[in-house]
Please model this.
Amino acid sequence: MNALYDVAAIGNAIVDVIAPADDAFLDTEGLSKGAMTLIDGAHATALYARMAAGIEASGGSAGNTVAGIASLGGRSAYIGKVADDSLGGIFAHDIRASGAHFATTPLSDGPGTARCLINVTPDGQRTMCTYLGACVELTAADVDPAVIEAAKIVYLEGYLFDPHEARRAFAKAAGLARAAGRQIALTLSDAFVVERHRDALLAFIDTQVDVLFANETEICALFETSDASAAIRAIRGRVEIAAVTRSEAGSVVLSAGAEHRIPADAVEKVVDTTGAGDQYAAGFLFGLASGRPLDICGRLGSMAAAEVIGHYGPRPGTSLTDLARARGF
Model:
């Protein structure tokens, strides 16, 4: 079957609210710097009222990746649940405007569209408080077989391991992709997700995943070690390709027969690290879907990550196609 999409992604559809903050604000609010914390609707409303003025932008990890792939000129599709409300309308408009296919039926009755309240400190670190709202209402029925079977790569967001119904959607997508002979990619998403679901994630990785994305904290959590080098060695052979990001140290890309050390792209000023890993995955997956060598996939990932951390917001602010062309990619 010919592929209609380079990548089809499934994830939590979230609108990001991004604002500057200092460490004192984090302390006052009892927030752990650099972490992602799940909160309820009442907490989300109260925290939002105390945050500094900021911006609202459609986000969600896999949604950001899909937008990045579209910015590179790739063909992408997205499956994620929003509510039939104003934030849901913003999300749907934004992801379609990026060039991605999005046709998931919105939730008409129940919680509102998910939002992530992101406080960014002067060092560029983001501290996230997430109200999942409608996105946890994603079910297996929302997974369109036609979309999954028409994608070269199916990209799954690790956050979906939390809600039970969403995990069933996750499993359905993986089954459809495997039956259609498509590659399955997974991002671990967050160390706390890994710690809660380590055994299930390892089983899924060993049996279903072709391409794994993780940062050093997440890969260490997966193998219960503080030694990142040991954790990176441990993932070799369990998947066809593993890409482990290491912040300013770049990334390590592993396959059965090779290891590539990819340097981070220079950034004049780190403004906001929100979306860095998502955009790394976008560049890498675009390269992989278009048949590029793994080292070039990693360099495309570094390029996309560097672009997004130079401004507020989790999605590209400039054309990644133009940046790639200027680099000779």
Observations:
- The radius of gyration is 18 Å.
